Amino acid sequence: MATDSEVRHEFHRHRKQPQMVQSLLKILAHIYATSHDARHWAFILGQISESYRARGACLYTATRDSVRWLASETIEPLMSVFFGDGRWRSDPWLARAREKQLPGFLSEGDLLSDQERRASPLYSDVLARDHIAETVGALFPLPNGEIAVLRLFYGDEQSQPTLNDRHSLERLRPHIERSLVLSTQAGTQQAQATTNALEAMGLPAAVLDGDGRVLAVNPAMESLRPTIAVNRPSGRIAIADETAQRAFDLALSGAIEGSLERSSALPLRAPGKPPLVLHLIALPHDRRDFFPSSAAMLTAVPVGPLSAPSSAFLQALFALTPAEARVAQGLAEGKTLEDLATLLNVSRETLRTQLRSVFAKTGAKRQAELATMLASASFLLGRQPEGDEPKPDTPGTGKASDRARRKPRSPR
């Protein structure tokens, strides 16, 4: 959010241009108030083009494989042609701007000669036919590695941008950049929160955006390399098994396009590794989203015998005491009360008391029902971290030792 001092600072920079002051402050207000929602950017672009007497303005980000764009209403038909059939790939202005990496808003005249412009089919077949005489644009690096472009298009009927216009755009540029960065981070942080939550449950997971690139991946999924990994140059999921990769690509296309209704299960085997089932889940999203948003979630579940849930997880899930959680974990591993009495060095009476408490907290009525419930938790969790096995108590532990470990109440 822009501070009062920042707004006053912009006002004093333009105090000799009252009309420009009003336009600039209006744009700043909308950028910070609504730019987190991509649907409002078309309105903001309209304000920018109107304030700087352009026919229209466009915000876009283009990679080798795809392009996302938003435009003011006045040039939407032109931009549909501009970005249609991959024409944007031959844009000499964009190529030169990326090559030079010069800061600020740059016109075609700053980067291209008249001969280069005339030789470009994008100019002769698209822009010139629509009587576009000049464009001015700037590059904005995004946290996800992409580069966004904000570009103003001036027609023959518009006066060309003045030196004051260029200076004013430069004043606006850091605010646009800050807003784009915050909007990009919002989608990424939400995806990271999702994968972190699944990591806490021991479930490998990744969240993908509408272009099929990984927005977030948790350490549990990273640990499955090279069976399944994130291809760092492209940011896409790479599966070692070619058959599974083809099935995944097909399911992902369905998730992005909206034809995959809920989820798709993909079996995956790798030499020397336990078999996995990959679950690709389509998430509600708008394909027109400009900023990164979650379009699909990928999880990996091991197939085969699973270890019992950790005592720490059972303690948190059912609000068990540490002693009760150790009993529940032992029963989930198939141990009897006699086994647990020896292992934990407690009496059978103590174990029965703890078991009754476990029944009350979990809702189970018999040991078989409890084992089934805990098995379902094992399936949900997948693998458990090592080193969380139940440990025998020292002599004299149990209820009495639990009480002994509690902090004494301070006298009133």
Automatic annotation (TrEMBL):
Pfam families noted in UniProt: GerE
Domain HTH luxR-type: 313-378
GO BP field: regulation of DNA-templated transcription
Gene3D superfamilies, per database record: Winged helix-like DNA-binding domain superfamily/Winged helix DNA-binding domain
Domain of life: Bacteria
GO molecular function, a single term: DNA binding
InterPro entries (alphabetical): Sig_transdc_resp-reg_C-effctor (IPR016032), Tscrpt_reg_LuxR_C (IPR000792), WH-like_DNA-bd_sf (IPR036388)
PROSITE patterns, sorted: HTH_LUXR_2
CDD domains reported in the protein's UniProt record: LuxR_C_like
Region (Disordered): 381-412
Protein known as: HTH luxR-type domain-containing protein
Gene source species: Zavarzinia aquatilis
Lineage: Bacteria, Pseudomonadati, Pseudomonadota, Alphaproteobacteria, Rhodospirillales
